[in-house]
Amino acid sequence: MNLTKAEEGKEYIIQNIETDDEELNAFLFSLGCYSGEPITVVSHLKGGCVVSIKDGRYNIDSQLAEAIII
Fold it and tell me: Residue 61's domain is classified under what CATH number?
């Protein structure tokens, strides 16, 4: 399941990041978004969702949300 199907307010563990873009992988890693890390969807928006990773909140687009497998 990816982040677009996640319930709001429920904590999930990131299983995998499905992208071939190394720059995107490096960006997500800098946010603390990598396999084994807890992630919570704060809210779903029209173009993506707001997620909580560690102590930060980030707005990610739907394409990126689909690449994050939980």
Answer: 2.30.30.90
Q: What is the mean pLDDT of residues 1-21?
A: 92
Rounded to two decimals, what is the model's pTM? 0.86
- 68 with 15: CB under 8 angstroms? no
Q: Could you tell me which residues come within 8 angstroms of residue 21 by beta carbon, excluding any fewer than 6 positions away? A: none
Interatomic CA distance for residues 42 and 21, integer angstroms: 25
In 3D space, the residue among 52, 69, 58, 64 whose CA is nearest the CA of residue 24 turns out to be: 64
Alpha carbons 44 and 36: distance in angstroms, whole number: 22
Domain containing 65 equals: 3-69
CB 5 within 8 A of CB 62: no
